[in-house]
Amino acid sequence: MKNVSTHFWRTFVPSLFCLLMVLGIASKTYAENAPSLMPLPAHMTKGDGQLTIDTGFTVKLEGYTEPRLDRARVRFIERLAAETGLRLEGGATSTTAVLTVKTHGASDAIQRSGEDESYHLQVTATGAELTAKNPLGILHGLQTFLQLVTISPKGFVAQAVTIDDEPRFVWRGLMIDAGRHFQPLDVIERNLDGMEAVKMNVFHWHVSEDQGFRIESKVYPLLQERGSNGQFYTQEQVKEVLAYARDRGIRVVPEFDMPCHTTAWFAGYPDLASGPGPFQPQTHWGVFDPAMDPTRESTFEFLDKLLGEMTALFPDAYFHIGGDECNGKQWDASQRIQGWMKAHGMKNDAALQSYFTGRVQKLVAKHHKVAEGWDEVLQPDTPRDVVIQSWRGPEGLAAAAKQGNHVLLSNGYYIDLNQAASYHYLTDPLGGDAATLTAEQKALVLGGEATMWSEFTAPEIIDSRIWPRTAAIAERLWSPQDVRDVESMYARMAVISDKLNFYGLTHQSYREPMLQRMSGKTNPHALAVLASVVQPPEGYEREDLKQYDTSSALNRLVDAVGPESETAREFGELAKRIADGKATPEDWQLARAWLTVWRDNDARLQPGLAASDIMAELAPLSKNLSQAAGIGLQALDDLQNHHAADATATQSNLQALKEAEKPQAVLIDKVVTAVEVLVEASGKAS
């Protein structure tokens, strides 16, 4: 911020886009002394000079080769050309090349958890060399090289550096829920590209839910014919995704959730259910009563045939069987099931579910797969080869490891809950209860998965919910445990976020068209100013503030804004520096400029609020921002004049700000808490 002149602010402060531009410059300036890599490598030494990237840039493959490496080279050149705007051919025309890629041997024919993913990358002012034991390491190293590329006074360059890198955890996953809201093939594939960019290696594909069964079954076609509302993946499309993922070093693990979250199954096959029908895919969200009947042999005969079909379709060694959120109400209501349980010595629903899981696990093993399930699956008699995915808390992860099961962490990585990147970043699979595990038990922790549940996610906006925050989770799962600098993470994540645009992700580009559609204006600046400082409620509060179902349009401001307001976060840090007496003159100038824009924005936005109900609901939110900013400006005056604010006025302002913290239009004004910091400090000024 130190290079921002007074003239700049007087001329450009009214434009939101200039404010955001300055923020971007600030973030990148922070990181300019070191490569903005994410994840940070295990070992990195900065060299002297820079490698020039120009139209003569070429790549040569040496050693072991296969078509996947050839495609990776082409993809690498295409990404480099997109980012630099240079016309690159990429192929080496002689015995020398700018980047030489040396692969020592093949990876497994079916990608396996725990394969060697290490690589060595050396970049000098005259050339670069990437070496790895197999193609997986090469794929990761190419992404690191792309992240090294930046603009300089001499044009595009890559910083001279020596990197020896390998992941901390073998399982670094992203789960996308295609059951509640179906996600088309292009959404899946571009997010696989994003995963490749940050070295994630497991795509967990959640393909069955109460709202939809999303994969074509040729054995039981009524699953998709009656249970998908016509939105499902054909088996040929599944194969396309599998090939697309393998090209990027990503395994694909499907999830068929059972015995609950299965209403859509029963639409075509009601005899699977524990209670009477008729059944249709659910149109609302939540935990529903319908559950599979574990007391009928016909249930397991059905599942045996379906699992035989689906395990043959998906080559990965792991197969997710769900197992979460069974309320047992259908079981409790059935006298027949209760009688069966009594006859078999089962005291409760947990015992019945454990019996079901054990049977299904054996079927999965029969088809040569390893079963995986959510942490409700863990029981004292759960086989040790079942992988537990912990979503309810670190204590579940520790319990699974102590029992001898491999385990993944997802609690803390629920990216649908609109939590800050810093929260996800500081959540560690070996933190909390897991920190007390023995070395042998810690070795059972495979890693973790970010989870993108889709109740409030349409294809238009899903990228913005996943990126760039998932890059922070990717770093937590790849980089050494002591890499925990939050400020550095945010600075590097801003750079990586921009680079992800060149992978076809829409996490930045989606917003402007949505704001234009809402406002009916080509340049909705006032609406964009409001959008820049609000975010959806954290956790599960959104579903309590407004009723939603599968037909609800996700086209309002709460859908158009990202999960974390970067502007409000930056302002919060600025307010803290001012309150702590550590602010520079430029900090004071920037704080006043921002607050002035926010105070005056309501008057600019008001004429457009009558355009539609989508806009009209924003009136209280806009007014609250204006009032909070006005209070903040007064607090700045008091602090700059070393004048303690009147105690009564301070309390009145704090009370008004507490009211402004409450959700409006299912949105939270994230500036308010920062203004509270200024007001509290002004009350103590002298």
Instruction: Name the CATH class of the largest domain.
Output: Alpha Beta
Main sheet? 8 strands, mixed
**Helix content percent band:** 40-55%
CATH architecture of the largest domain: Alpha-Beta Barrel
- The proportion of residues in beta strands is 5-15%
Distance between the termini: 27 Å
Quickly give the structural class: alpha/beta
Pick out the low-confidence regions. Answer: 1-32
- Kindly report the oligomeric state of this protein: single chain
What spatial form do the alpha-carbon principal axes imply?
globular
Count the DSSP helices: 28
CATH structural fold name of the largest domain:
TIM Barrel
Quickly count the domains.
Answer: 3
Tally of strands: 20
Short description:
With 686 residues, the chain is of the alpha/beta class. It folds into three domains: 6-21 and 510-682, no CATH class; 43-165, Chitobiase/beta-hexosaminidase domain 2-like (Chitobiase, domain 2); 171-413 and 446-501, Glycosidases (TIM Barrel), CATH 3.20.20.80.
What does this entry look like structurally?
- The chain is of the alpha/beta class.
- The protein folds into 3 domains: 6-21 and 510-682, no CATH class; 43-165, 2-Layer Sandwich (Chitobiase, domain 2); 171-413 and 446-501, TIM Barrel.
- It has 28 helices and 20 strands.
- Strands 1, 2, 3, 4, 5, 6, 7 and 8 form an 8-stranded mixed beta sheet that branches.
- The longest helix has 22 residues, at 619-640.
- It starts with 5 loop residues before the first helix and ends with a helix.
